From TrEMBL:
Location of the Aspartate/ornithine carbamoyltransferase carbamoyl-P binding domain: 5-144
Spans traversing the lipid bilayer: none
One matching Pfam family: OTCace_N
GO terms under biological process: amino acid metabolic process
Recorded GO MF terms: amino acid binding; carboxyl- or carbamoyltransferase activity
InterPro entries with a match to the protein in the record: Asp/Orn_carbamoyltranf_P-bd (IPR006132), Asp/Orn_carbamoylTrfase (IPR006130), Asp/Orn_carbamoylTrfase_sf (IPR036901)
Keywords of the record: Transferase
Organism annotation: marine metagenome
Name the UniProt record assigns to this protein: Aspartate/ornithine carbamoyltransferase carbamoyl-P binding domain-containing protein
Amino acid sequence: MQLEHLKDTRTITREYLEKDIFPASDSLRNDPLNGQQLQGKSLFSLFYEPSFLTRISFERAITLLGGHPLHTEDASQFFPVTTPNYIEDTVEILNSLHIDGVVIRSSERGIIENATKASRIPIINGGSNDDHPTQSIADIYTIHKELDGVDNKVVSILGRLEHRNVCALLLGLSLFDNTEVRLLPFSGQVPPEIEKICKDRGLNLSHLQELSEIKGSDVVYLNGPRTAAHYELLKSRNSFISKIDSEFMSMLKSDSIILDPMQRSGDF
């Protein structure tokens, strides 16, 4: 499967993951020093929001593959965002400078879609308002690698269910067979549109009330509070906050894995 852009998780297929992404990832893991596949190529991180892990991950990856990373700390300070077609104009400027690929992070609706329509170079969604395809790919690959497949797994997702990481993971899991997902919120809920897509694809979704209901999970996915202040607010309201201790681990299988997709302010 050939993708012109990686704009969202919805358009990713199981075939693309299993025939392209997983083998390529295995190859790089087994021989991380062989990577000169992108020698001479450049990748521009066009981030309109603060980021540490995502931006550095892209920059480190293209460096390991022989390419050259470029970025702005805050794209809105360097590229005008007040004109109607600012994203189309920006990617055209980057194309004129012979940039080979652009990663965009923006929560403004329509930005990724508009960029892909206007761009003659590959656009990667590095995090939009309700999606994060590269995070989903990384999470699905980890489950595949650590548990020898994604089919027939029980995945419990704890935390902020409205977050783009969770939306993207659910869409990714919905590509696999007989996968059960248990949802336990700290705050928020999965957007109805995302939940409907996943259920229509056959994903078994259930909503939990108690932490003990994650018992027997193959995967626990922790999506923590936004900030330290958010963490303290949840604590003051007696919202569910978990800690990873021996009692927590006793509820899981001996080979279960715990995924932490992002920096967090609360201490698990």
